[in-house]
Every structure is written in C-alpha cells, then in structure tokens.
C-alpha cells in the first residue's frame, strides 16, 4: 500500500489463495456498458405513472433531485474504489475500513440486492415477451433469458461486455427514437400540459410530495454501483473505475430527466387523474406514447425493454458472481466460490445463475411474483450504501489512511449520503423492511458461527487491510 496515498497497489493480480486470479481485460467503455445495462436507460418507463401521480406532476424534478441524491453514493464509491480496488465492492470496502465483521454484513446485505435484482429483470423480460407472444408461457421466456445470459457470462467478461454493448446501443437508439418522435409531436401539436409542469407540477406544488416520490425514484438507479465489482478486471487502474461510476450516474440521470420531461408533456391525463386511478399508473408511459405517437413506437419500446431487461440481469448476475467470489476468497462463504477458470469465476457464476433462475421462474409462475421480489431487493442495496458511506468516514477521517482529511469529501458527503439511504429505508414498504431485517438476522447468525475463523489470503495479513501483488 502506498504510504503517501493509502491506496492499495493495482499493478498485478490479487492472490486468491492458490487459485488463478481474475483477468484484467475491461476498459472504460466496458465498465459504463455494465453500469448502464444494469440500470437500464429507460428504467423510468415502469414507474413514470406512479411518480407523476405522487409528485403532483413534477416527475422531471423528481429525477433531478434523485440524481443529486445518488451522486453522494456514487462519489463515495469513487473514493473507496481508488483505495480498495478489489472485487466484492462494498464488502471489500467495509472489511478494510470497518473490520471483518461489518465487512461480512455489508456483503451479506448487498448479496440480497445483487442476487435478486437479476431475478426481477428476468421476470420483467418474461412478462414482456409473453405479452408479445402469448402462446409461450412467461416462465419459459424467463428461464430462456436466464440460460442465454448465464452462458454469455460463463464464456467470459469480455464476450458478455461485447454482447451487452450491442444491446445497450439498441436501447439507446430506441430511446433516441422516442425522444425525437416526442419532440416532433410537441412541435406539431403542442403539449398536453404546461411546458414547465414536469419541473413545477401540473397542480399544487408540494415539496413533501416531490421528496416522497424521490424515495421511489432513487431505486431506478440501483445497479450503477455494480461497476465497482469489476475493479480487479479493469485495465489502467482503479481511477478508471471511479470515473466510470460517476459518468454512468450522470448519463443515466440525464436520460431519465429527458425522457420523463417529454412523456409528461405528452401525458393526456393529469397527475390528479392518475392518482385517482392507480390501475392506469403502470402503463401510463406506454399509453402516452400510444396516443401521441403511435402503436408502432409503443411496441418498439416494449421489445427494447424486454431485451434490455435480460441484459440488465446479465450485468447484475456478473456483479453478484464477483461478490460471491470475493466473499469466498475471504472464506466468509465456501472457498470453492473463489475458484476461477481462465480468469472467469465460473463456480460463483453458476451459483448466482442457479439462484436467480429458481427465484425468477418461481416468481414467473405466480401472479404476485413481481411484487414479492421487488419488495425484497431494495433494502439490501440501501443498507449496503449506508455501510459504504460509513467506510469512507472510517477510512479517511477516523483511520486517516488517505492522508490529510478533507472534511467535506470525507465526512459531509458520506454522512449526507447515508442520511438519504436511511430515509429511503424508512420510507420502504413494511414487507421490505421485515424481509431485510430477517436477512440481517440470518447474516448475524452466520457471522456468529464463523467467529474466530481466519480470513483468506486475498485481503492481506492484517485485519481490514487488503493487498494486491505489486
């Protein structure tokens, strides 16, 4: 570790306790592809109606505030990935800055997010494809999506990144087609609402309503943090990962704000009417496109969302495998998870794929499957974000391992980020809170059973100090 900066060297492979390390083959573009795939460029499509109703029509403002709110978390990731550039993301950061116990809990809670968000995406793909081809059951489409994307991940991170780039390009093109079509309609026919209403509301502006909607909107960004999981597979050092995290969030925020602003102007129903008719909220984006532009664009967006969801799951599954790999390498999960083959953590990928396959197919066979999955995944990510921010404060301000303390960067920013994450946890559904608490209790029980177990070689000889080969 550098005595001047406190950064863990990144010049070589991380030891894996006798196993081959991960292979460095990803560039900046690949990292951004994984992040945007996981987030999905048109993530607001499904929640637009609910956010519009909840915010009194100020849905674009909601995404502006949400982007700023998530910037605190992105900045904390950027700081920690520079000094602890290891696979496992928040697990590695909390382990290094807070200790082995908190590190395990951070990884355990992140696991709930990383393993089940792909299942949600696969299920969404199955539902969308079933709507397009009703003769094939949605669980069949769901299982097929899991098998195809898992195979791509097993081949290798570069192959998956190339396939992901093509899908992401398709999603961006569809989004641009929507935006251009929307602008043409607005210029030709005018807006259904006031031009400033997506920023000020189409009725009575209420700050509390906007902030309440922000607590939902921030969940659209879950996944950009997966970029940090590939820290051991990027060429050119951890600074590239930090830049990719920040760039991905900024680009996603711009796309979210632009598309919600345009569709809000096309929406024929007022936010009050949407609030009074909850059944219309889920399809509000599609309905507005259908009425104003045409069914062809409706169908194009639906197909894009179906394919994009499968590849969002691909990125999520890859990140989940890196988390399992890192925890297995540290002997906090079975050591077999740390095995690699030609630089690919195939055992961890197979386990992650199996878990998401079972969860997604189970949910696809139930009418309420989507609700069950969505209510679970968010809490894990938010708890992990909170521990990420605590890691920044501990590493830089308490342990002083990053040189001189910058109180704004190392204390104010992470404290505000943690406050935002905790506020969203408080606003979460009771079911999500209960499931999250139960998962936490199980993690604490596992940690208690593992007390006294020596850590793996990958994290260095002293508690909380990761190392890489120079």
Which key terms come to mind for this protein?
single chain, 470 residues, mainly alpha, 17 helices, 0% strand, globular, disordered C terminus
How would you describe what is shown here?
With about 475 residues, this protein is an all-alpha fold. Helix content is about 70%, strand content about 0%. The protein has 17 helices and no strands. The chain is globular. Mean pLDDT is about 85; it is low at about 1-20 and about 455-470.
Number of strands: 0
The average pLDDT is 83
- Contiguous low-pLDDT stretches (5 residues minimum) are 1-19, 457-470
Outline type: globular
Number of helices: 17
Query: What amount of the residues lies in strands?
Result: under 5%
Structural class: mainly alpha
Distance between the first and last residues' Cα: 9 Å
**Elements, N to C (H/E):** HHHHHHHHHHHHHHHHH
Integer-rounded radius of gyration: 22 Å
């Amino acid at each position: 570790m550098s005595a001047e900066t406190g950064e863990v060297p990144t010049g070589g492979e991380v030891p894996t306790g006798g196993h081959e390390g991960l292979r460095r083959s990803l560039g900046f573009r690949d990292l951004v592809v994984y992040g945007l795939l996981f987030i999905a460029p048109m993530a607001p499509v499904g929640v637009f109606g609910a956010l519009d109703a909840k915010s009194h029509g100020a849905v674009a403002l909601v995404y502006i505030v949400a982007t700023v709110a998530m910037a605190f978390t992105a900045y904390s990731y950027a700081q920690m990935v520079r000094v602890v550039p290891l696979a496992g993301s928040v697990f590695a950061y909390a382990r290094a800055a807070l200790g082995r116990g908190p590190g395990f809990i951070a990884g355990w809670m992140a696991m709930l997010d990383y393993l089940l968000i792909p299942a949600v995406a696969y299920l969404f793909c199955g539902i969308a494809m079933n709507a397009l081809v009703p003769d094939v059951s949605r669980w069949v489409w769901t299982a097929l999506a899991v098998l195809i994307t898992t195979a791509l991940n097993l081949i290798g991170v570069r192959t998956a990144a190339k396939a992901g780039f093509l899908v992401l390009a398709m999603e961006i093109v569809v989004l641009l087609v929507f935006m251009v079509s929307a602008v043409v309609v607005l210029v030709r026919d005018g807006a259904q609402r006031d031009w400033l209403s997506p920023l000020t509301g189409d009725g009575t502006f209420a700050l509390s309503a906007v902030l309440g909607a922000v607590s939902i909107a921030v969940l659209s960004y879950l996944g950009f943090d997966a970029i940090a999981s590939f820290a051991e597979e990027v060429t050119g050092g951890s600074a590239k990962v930090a830049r990719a995290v920040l760039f991905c969030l900024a680009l996603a925020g711009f796309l979210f704000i632009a598309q919600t602003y345009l569709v809000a102007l096309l929406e024929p129903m007022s936010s009050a009417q949407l609030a009074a008719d909850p059944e219309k909220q889920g399809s509000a984006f599609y309905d507005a496109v259908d009425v104003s532009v045409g069914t062809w664009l409706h169908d194009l967006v639906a197909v894009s969302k179906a394919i994009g969801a499968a590849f969002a799951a691909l990125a999520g599954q890859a990140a989940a495998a890196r988390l399992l790999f890192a925890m297995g390498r540290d002997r906090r999960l079975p050591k077999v998870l740390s095995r690699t083959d030609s630089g690919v953590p195939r055992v961890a990928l197979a386990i992650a794929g199996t878990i998401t396959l079972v969860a997604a197919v189970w949910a696809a066979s139930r009418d309420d499957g989507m609700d069950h999955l969505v209510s679970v995944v968010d809490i894990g990510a938010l708890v992990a974000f909170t521990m990420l921010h605590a890691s920044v404060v501990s590493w830089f301000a308490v342990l002083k391992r990053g040189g001189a303390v910058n109180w704004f960067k190392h204390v104010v920013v992470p404290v505000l980020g943690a406050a935002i994450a905790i506020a969203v946890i408080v606003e979460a559904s009771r079911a999500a809170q209960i499931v999250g608490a139960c998962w936490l209790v199980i993690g604490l029980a596992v940690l208690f059973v593992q007390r006294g177990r020596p850590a793996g070689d990958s994290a260095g000889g002293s508690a909380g100090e990761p190392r890489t080969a120079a």
